[in-house]
């Protein structure tokens, strides 16, 4: 097996692949044409020594990946030839204010909204619900129990969210492209010729998938937050927000080690995330794998 750092993301009718400084998106238009776009991006970790340090690199990588992924997703929506509606008065107003910068404003606004939504749904809401339980949380044991209950609620909310969005027809298509992305990467790691026939035979479950990382983040948050004393709702929320970069950073180190090593305890932590990919990845058809391979070939030498 070839060791590589190629990563990707499913888009609307397409796939994005990243390798080193190269980013490639491949999108299939309504006429069947595959449009491939290649851009150069030097990761922040390469530009700044501080961002290469353990733990810090994980938090930085999470934000950077969100920005790059959101941009690729928005770009793919424009390329697919989705029937455009007439611009609303509000859209015209925004164009008048921001002009050529409107896309950048929408991009970063989308990232901020996604972050706020994720924090509220997976961190603040579980903490609020856990606060309903009437036992004494001022003691050490009570505080640990409250934090563990909060963590369990967080896992339940996350699983319910993933299951619900998977029922959407458009999201299911994205999940199929997610499976195609993994098929393509497996073929490359197996040092096989990058053909549809070679790629499609592989599993859609991959240990380096972002789904697994998100689950490791949740498990890490349960462990780290259990050491934090339970306080008032506002203080609890503030502490969790302050600790979120640490959680993301520690989870990143665990995630990377689990993907590289055969150490069973580390593999066990990432295993639930691997099983969750049975929802977030779906078996693709040959045309979807073809798109994933087009993106992959644009960022690798093979």
TrEMBL record:
Record field: transmembrane: 102-124, 144-164, 210-228, 234-255
Keywords tagged on the record: Membrane, Transmembrane, Transmembrane helix
Source superkingdom: Bacteria
Designated name of the protein: Metal-dependent enzyme
